[in-house]
Each structure stands twice: as structure tokens, then as C-alpha cells.
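Running this now, will post back.
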Amino acid sequence: MKNELVIDLEAEKKEILKRYRALLRACKPTLQKGDKKEIRKAFDMALESHKDMRRKSGEPYIYHPIAVAQIAAEEIGLGTTSIVCSLLHDVVEDTDITLEDIEFSFGKKTAKIIDGLTKISGVFDYNSSLQAENFRKMLLTLADDVRVILIKLADRLHNMRTMDFMPRQKQLKIASETIYLYAPLAHRLGLYAIKSELEDLSMKYLEPDTYKFIAKKLNEKKAERTLFIKKFVEPITEILEEQGLRASVYGRPKSIHSIWNKMKKKNIPFEEVYDLFAIRIILDSAPDHEKSDCWKAYSIVTDLYRPNPDRLRDWVSSPKGNGYESLHTTVMGPKGQWVEIQIRTLRMNEIAEKGFAAHWKYKESTNDNGLDQWIQKVREMLSNPEANALDFIDDFKMNLFSDEIFIFTPKGALIQLPMGATALDFAFEIHTDVGAKCIGAKVNHKLVPLSYKLQNGDQVEVITSGKQTPKEDWLNIVVTAKAKSKIKSSLKEEKRRIAETGKETLERKLKSLKITYNTENLNKLTYFFKLPSTQELFIRVAQGQIEMKDMKDYLASEKEIETRGPERSENQQIEALLSKVKGPENDILLIGEDMQKIDYTLAACCNPIPGDDVFGFVTVNEGIKIHRTNCPNAAQLMANYGYRVVKAKWNKQKELTFLTGLHIVGIDDVGLINNITKVISNDFKVNMRSITVDTNDGIFDGSIMIYVNDTEHLEKLISDLMRVKGVTGVTRFDA
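Update: finished.
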């Protein structure tokens, strides 16, 4: 009997050494001089202090620390300090060794990390959760050293992989904790492989039947899938090679948990989940070609298979907050099913698999501010000493998904929206008709406008009205693609309806003026009223902006042109303007000089500003337009209408406009601000830089910063503002 046990121990010793050697091989890429000695020292200490301990499965306890260190090295890519801490992560908690001993042998840094990994012992009040306190303690260390969390994740992953021998109660507790905190944490740190494995393993214990069912189904179709992937990938690989792109292309199955999520979310049976796998294209690219290579591969794929235009996700141009970079698209496969394709480079793939740790490695080249900001946020949350640990965990959980926000409906259903989404986005997310009729919302029972930016966890109730229709300015309020496209299409529809009625009205008016209703005359009318299209003409007529007297003006001008001949009139106008500009002694138009009475406008196509090289172009209807010499239209204008071009330069003494401040007081009335800004922007074509408004018990008090040309301009503006109903005083103040 005794003999048997000895052999057993011998075999175990061999196994332990074998595992230790495997660990060293995994560490090899990061080993520096003297590191091997440190790791050996840590291994010996762990071996010695855990020597009489066994795991629930009966194995020697040391297997666990070795495995955690192996995960940290291989799957997360951490370096020596982390390997040492992984080997020792349980010694302070489970053995006689103290933190002082560790600090003495391995230094302050290691001791601090191990302290972060050590559970809190001692007495607790019952309304707090020990688990939450431990988690909070671990996060306190995260703020200083992210390795604490990474090792904790490795520890958790190994525990989840070897949980079969635990009592059911313990399995459920650990699995729920994993799905609630550790999987999202892995996601936030960009460890996608670990995140999906943690989710799958949690599901295996929390929903064993569903898990087994999906696993079985996946297994049944495995051969069929493999064949499909092979056929699908072949042409891609071929063309990539032809184009000189080094790449490996392979299919990988989606995780069981994500398939289950899809079934729940879309409420469909397993058979209807189409994307059971994703095709991954990993390019071996030089750092400066990464982006263009990814797009090259994308165009090769989409030449072969038709992409779904709504399913392009470009995290290559703007990486996710956790550093994830990849190009995702969904294409229609040869057998009529959607296939997801992920395109990335080796570097991006390493960041996707190893998240945070790979980030450090490429820190110079990538923008890791998303992660740094996130850690900063965690620090701020931790600095609130009053917070109950459980509330803290809930807040923290909200923070894990900071690229998205979660909003609740009045009945408590959860809706996920992008950061920065407004109440109007939420309304459209509920339903298109709800969005279109939305006039406001109640957020957490308080009334807010459509443009209110939602915060994580808000509960939103949409208020609608049968009279409401989508407005043009809604497009500036919403951020989600869904809302934008719905608003656009309903505006188009609305315009078409108005134009229809306008068309009929116009026909009647033309008939009474004895003008033939035909395309030529419609075009002439459109030109006469300076409108972009005949549709716009119909709309103006329908809205009553073009009336009978305007039509008569048009008729009169037509008669004048007939008697005088059109060509002469245009040329004469131009001649007159040219001689006025050039004058007898001056052939340069000075822009921005107060006394110059010539009408000029700055061209919208190139928005010239003082200091640009410019020229003036004499137009027929709008006086002189100032263009930049490198304006996209300049070459054409100069080539075709050389005689209309005037030299121009900015007047040196004065800039074009000056910033000045106006203080406005009055009696608060509906639409007052609107009327004030109308005067400023419509009548004066003046730029407002800022406007601040305060209303107190019916008294309106506002300050506006605007750009004006000169004092004359300003005085005119003040007198016009004084005419606005409700305004009692306008005074100037210096900016």
C-alpha cells in the first residue's frame, strides 16, 4: 500500500516538473537576463508552501498556480513580474507566508500586485457583500497596475475550466459572478478570446441543457460546415495571393453563448441562426500598409461575394475604446446565407486576442487613450468613499460598456444605444411611428426636449402627438443611423406631397395670366426666382411664398427682355459693374475697405478668409463674388469668363469683420430668441459666435457675440433688433 503512494508521488513530481518546463517555454519570448532565476524562486516558494494541499479533484494544488501563470504568459502575453505573481497569487491567502516575506524576496511591485489579488479577511457588516468588497479591492489596485486584473482573469479562467469537482452551489455562485463581472471585464480590456470562453463556461454551469443542446447541434453539422468554409475560402485565398497579400484565412465557430444570445434576442430556433461561424482573414502587413491592406482585402472579398451594406463595421479607422481594431462585414455566401468576415493584421489580431497586454507592447503606435480614460473613470469611481460596495459594483458594471449606453423603457425593457444618443434616437429605436410623432420625453419622470442627451441607465418615456411630423433640424439632433434614415425618407415624402398641391395651384395661376404651362416656362420661372429646382418652385407656391404679384413681376421682366434682347442686358450689367470696380486709376478691388460701396459676397464654394489669394468674379445677379485663386471652380471661371475676373486683395488696414458683443434685454415672449437670431442671420448675413440667454420671471436677458464689418453695420443691426417685439434695450459691450 505504502509503496503505491510513493510511486504516485514520484509520478506527480515528474508531472509538476513537466508543467513547469511548459510554463518556461511559454515565457520564453519575454524572458530577460535573470528572469528565469526569479521565476524559479517563485515556483520553489509556491511548491513549498502549497506542498500539503490538494484541489477538490485530488490533484496537487501547485497545478493551479502553474496553470494560471501559463494562461498569463501564453493567452494574455504577460511578462516575468506577472508570472511570478501568478505563481504566488494564493500563498498569502492560503499559507503562512506574509506580504512582507514576498516584498523581501521579490520587491515592492510584486507584493503590491499580490496584495491586490489577496481576498479580504476579517469581520464584515452583513449589508455589504464580501465578494463586492473583494472586487473593489482588486480594482483599487487596477488603478495603479492593470496586471492585477489580468492575473485575476487568468485565475478565474482556470477555475472555470476545472470546476467539475465543485459542489453545485459553488459552481452556480462562481459562474454567475463570472458572467456578471469577469466576462464584461475581459471584454472591456479587449481580451475577446478569454471573454467568450468565460461566457461559454458560465453557460455550461448556469444553463447546462441549452449549452449541451447547442454544442450537440454544432457538432452534428461540423463536417458540412467545414466543407462550406473550405469552398468559401478558396477563391479568397487565391486572389489574395495573386495581389501579393500574405494572409491566413480560416473559419472559426461562434461561441455557444453568442449563438444562444442571438436565439434569445431574435427569438428564433437554432436552425435559423445563420452565422454560426465567422471567416477571419489575418494579413501579414508592414505597419504603414496595415490600413490599406485591410481595405484591399475587403474589396477582394466584396468583389467575390455581395456585402450587406448595413453590416460594415470599421474599427480600423477608429478603434474601439478598448483598442480593438478590425474590419467586419457580412456577405452573402454562394448558398444564400450570410457569412461574417473579419479582416485584420497580425498586430491587430494580437491586440484582439491579448487585449491590454498587447497594447503595452504596441503602445507607441496605437491610441490607447480609450483604455487610459476608462481606467481614469474607474479611479474616479473608486475615489467616492461613501459608496456601498454593491452599488459600486453596479456602477462599475455600467461603466464596463462605456461605448454603449443602456436605456430602460417605462416597463423596464433594456435598449442599447450608442454614446451620445438623444431622446429622439430612443423614440425611433422604439418604433418609426413613435419617432415621427415624438414631441418630447420624460427622462426619469422629468420632462426633457427631443435633443436631450441620454445617460446610462436613464428610464425614458416618449411623449407623442398626432400633429407632429419630422422636421429638417431633427437630423442635427439624432446620432443613430436608424433615426437619420427614417427622418430623411419622411421629409422627402412630405416635400413631395406639398409640391403636388403647389403644382396644381401654379397651373391655375399661370392659366389666369395666360402663360402656357410647359417645361420651358417652368424653368424660366425657377431661374427668375433663383430656385434650385422646379420642385422647390412648387413648394414655395404651396406655402404662399410666391404669390400672384410675384408672377406679375415675372411677366413684366419677360416683356422687358423681349424688347431689349437678353444678351445686351447681361453684358451691360457686367460692363457697368466692371467700370465701377476698376475705376479710372484703380484696377484692384480692395476687400474689406469701409468706404467701398461695391456689393461683393464671399463665394460659398471656397469660403475665402482674409489672407487668402483671391479674385473677384462679376456675376449677373449677385454682384461680385470673391473666390480663392485655388478654388475648385477658379480654373473654369478664369478660362471661360476671363473678362469678368477682377483682381482683388484684402485691405491691409482692416480685417473683414470684427467680433463685438451686444447685450439685449426685453420681455420674454414665445419665439423671442428665434426672432432675434432671424434678424441677425437673415437680414445681415452676420456670423454669430455665441449666444447666452437667461430668463428670470418673464424678463429676458441675453448676450450675443457677433462679427460685424464696421460701426455703420453695427448701428443698423441695433436699430433692427430694437424693432423686434418684446426687445426693450440693446447695448454694445466690448468682447
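The mean pLDDT is 77. More later if anyone needs it.
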